[in-house]
Amino acid sequence: MDFDMDFERDLDFTVETVESGSPFLIVVWLALMIFIIAACWKTFGKAGEPGWAAIVPIYNLFVFLRIAGKPGWWLILFFIPLVNLIVSIVATVAFAEKYGKGVGFAIGLIFLPFVFYPILGFGGSQYQG
Questions:
Q1: What is the pLDDT of residues 55-106, one digit of tens each?
Q2: Which residues contact 75 (CB under 8 A, 6 or more apart)?
Q3: CB 112 within 8 A of CB 36
Q4: Domain-embedded: residue 67
Q5: Could you give the percent of the chain with pLDDT greater than 90?
Q6: pTM of this structure
Q7: Which domain does 95 fall in, by range?
């Protein structure tokens, strides 16, 4: 019984700590988000698209598809559960190929976008549309 009491107290402490939010973590999170947005902005710009499109919801998917060389109507497929997973993988592979990268790089774009989008945006990769 004593164990349950300690567990509940520890759980309450953890929830309160997470809800309060550390100012340091918030600043780090904001800096990371700004960095990723800048990388996507630069990546879109390399393809001749407006960089600001990277921050506009839904329109950024349309531009992403256009850069990947996929038809615009595929945007509708992003709203269908499970189909959207397949379409996003196929589009990301095509997107990476337009920058001269392979499937491995596309997997990196999917699972580690905060590493791979800056490589595309700030690196020497050129759009090969």
A1: 999 999 999 999 999 999 999 999 999 999 999 999 999 999 999 999 999 9
A2: 58, 61, 62, 65
A3: no
A4: yes
A5: 74
A6: 0.79
A7: 2-122
Confidence (pLDDT) at 15:
46
Q: How far apart are CA 67 and CA 81, in angstroms?
A: 23
> How far apart, in whole angstroms, are the C-alpha atoms of residue 53 and residue 61?
9
Using alpha carbons, list the distances in angstroms from residue 18 to 27, 33, 98. 15, 19, 41
127: Cα separation from own chain's centroid: 19
Flag whether 108 is in a domain. Answer: yes
24 domain residue, yes or no: yes
In contact, 91 and 97? CB cutoff 8 Å: no
How many folded domains does the chain comprise? 1
Distances (CA, A) of 126 to 65, 71, 99, 103, 107: 17, 22, 6, 17, 19
The answer to whether residue 115 is domain-embedded is yes
Measuring CA to CA, which residue among 55, 36, 49, 32 is closest to residue 95? 49
Cβ neighbours for 77, distance < 8 A, ≥ 6 positions apart: 83, 84, 87
